[in-house]
Amino acid sequence: QVQLQESGPGLVKPSQTLSLACSVSGGSIKNGSHYWSWIRQPPGQGLEWIGYIYFSGRTSYNPSLKSRVTISSDSSTFQFSLKLDSVTAADTAIYYCARGHRASWAYYLDSWGQGTLVTVSS
Amino acid sequence: FMLTQPHSVSESPGKTVTISCTGGGGGIASNYVQWYQQRPGRAPTPVIYDDNQRPSGVPARFAGSIDSSSNSAFLTISGLQTEDEAVYFCQSYDDSNHVLFGGGTQLTVL
């Protein structure tokens, strides 16, 4: 059973870059039938997809965040990462990493990390 | 393309409840729909994928369906239990394979 775990600073200053990593255990990020995704959830609100990356390195980003987001992966360390530039208070949220898995037709997010709260404040 | 859910629904234990997810700006049948359950303080977990398939370990009380005429997907939970009380999110993709979430529906079992 694959497990995911987010790590990174819980407090980021406005205008700085938010950087998080997701460690994957019990599976390989090299599996071509998966993608690796970041999702966030402002406190008390709904889910917002940030983006995903395949092992090939191909990425897809939420158009509303695309200009500020970079997702990368490192198969040697079984990690994938999120960078979000020029953060504001509106970026305060619980950030989840998750695996996209395709059982038959569509990819679905079958495994999630526990989430990490990132607060943007001076 | 966006997904719209009711803000909240409530039903009694043992009864059946249905949560809707309506596609706006596109056909909901064009891309498969997934459903996730999120209990307080926890990460979401999948309960339905590919419109109507249940991941391993999800009880048969959870069922998904699509109605093209209303451009909606539905999550039906029968034999409601108090442990089903949670927020349920629908999820699909747009034509660019961007992930879309509905706003979430709070299910109260009272």
Question: Mind explaining what this structure looks like?
Answer:
The complex is a heterodimer of chains A (122) and B (110). Chain A has 122 residues and is mostly beta strands. Chain A has no helices and eleven strands. Chain A has strands spanning 3-7, 11-12, 18-25, 34-41, 48-54, 59-61, 69-74, 79-84, 93-102, 107-112, 116-120. In chain A, the strands form two sheets. In chain A, strands 2, 4, 5, 6, 9, 10 and 11 form a seven-stranded mixed beta sheet that branches. In chain A, strands 1-3-8-7 form a four-stranded antiparallel beta sheet, with no helix packed on it. In chain A, a hairpin with a 6-residue loop joins strand 4 and strand 5 (48-54). In chain A, 36% of the residues are buried. The mean pLDDT of chain A is 94. Chain B has strands at residues 2-4, 8-11, 17-24, 34-38, 45-48, 62-67, 72-77, 86-93, 99-101, 105-109. The radius of gyration of chain B is 13 Å and the shape is globular. In chain B, strand 6 and strand 7 form a beta hairpin. The N and C termini of chain B lie far apart (34 Å). By secondary structure, chain B is an all-beta fold. In chain B, strands 2, 4, 5, 8, 9 and 10 form a six-stranded mixed beta sheet that branches. Chain B has a four-stranded antiparallel beta sheet with strand order 1-3-7-6, with no helix packed on it. The chains are: A mainly beta (122), B mainly beta (110). The A-B interface holds A 37, 39, 46-49, 52, 60, 62-63, 96, 98, 103-106, 108-110, 112-115 and B 31-32, 34, 36, 42-46, 49-50, 53, 55, 89, 91-93, 96-104.
